[in-house]
Design brief:
single chain; 247 residues; alpha/beta; Cobalt-precorrin-4 Transmethylase, domain 1; Methyltransferase, Cobalt-precorrin-4 Transmethylase, Domain 2; five-stranded parallel beta sheet; five-stranded mixed beta sheet; 10 strands; 31% helix; elongated
């Protein structure tokens, strides 16, 4: 019996062109696929159109994950593989199954005997870690922090700071409209010597990656635009550096 594979298909993370962030071999595989599982069919079809799929869009099947019950329908969606068809799992941006409900699809594929093939592509989490200057051998992605619950947020923040000071880089995200308010809380609650790195619009036209201590950030007077950003709390090396910013 010929069983298709589940390809984990990365897409762009900003409005940059596909050619600048997606490897050609990954693009070639993506263009051949006719069956997909994703969060939103509209996003998937728009990307496939930009990628110049080898198939007419009306001939491509896209199964949507239920955002309220992500597990629902997954095994049924994967049945296409048992008809000999390869399937692509696609996220709304970047790599599927990382901070993404697609991980449930991968789990199910393993359980029912479908080969899983991850493909290379951009991940804002890893790109921000790479550009931060923080420890890349020990790190933790915390996802979204419960910002609305001040007590819980402050407790989690202090725990992240403690772990960061031990050398485990802490990474988290927030909805764009809360970027600045989150940043202001970090500056207020964290120790002046604690380091924060902020990556904004990675791979995009407004890309910015900056790392300073809390005390230094207060001198910078940085304002985070309402676009995708990644926050990192980490520990810098003990080497001294001069702090001289010209604006």
């Amino acid at each position: 019996m010929n069983i298709g594979k589940l390809y984990l298909v990365p897409i762009t993370i900003t409005d940059n062109s596909i050619s600048s962030s997606i490897p050609q071999n990954v693009l070639d595989i993506t263009k051949e696929l006719k069956y997909f599982i994703s969060e939103r069919a509209k996003t998937t079809r728009a990307y496939l159109k930009e990628a110049q799929s080898n198939h007419a869009l009306q001939d491509i099947t896209v199964h949507e994950l239920n955002k309220h019950k992500a597990q629902e329908g997954i095994e049924e969606f994967l049945q296409d593989a048992f008809q000999g068809n390869d399937i692509g799992l696609m996220s709304e941006a970047g790599c599927p199954a990382v901070a993404d409900p697609g991980s449930l699809v991968v789990e199910t594929a393993h359980q029912i005997g479908i080969e899983v093939v991850p493909l290379v592509g951009p991940s804002s989490i890893l790109l921000s870690l790479m550009g931060s200057g923080f420890n890349g051998q020990s790190f933790k992605f915390n996802g979204y922090i419960p910002f609305k619950d001040k007590g819980e947020f402050n407790g989690i923040l202090k725990k992240m700071e403690a772990e960061a000071n031990k050398g485990c880089t802490q990474i988290f995200i927030e909805t764009p409209y809360r970027n600045q308010s989150t940043f202001e809380v970090l500056l207020k609650k964290l120790n002046p010597n604690t380091s924060i790195s902020i990556s904004v619009d990675l791979l995009g036209k407004e890309q910015s990656i900056q790392t300073y201590t809390v005390g230094e950030w207060k001198k910078v007077g940085f304002k985070i635009p309402k676009i995708p950003a990644i926050f990192l709390i980490g520990k810098q090396s003990d080497q001294k550096r001069s702090f001289d910013i010209n604006y």
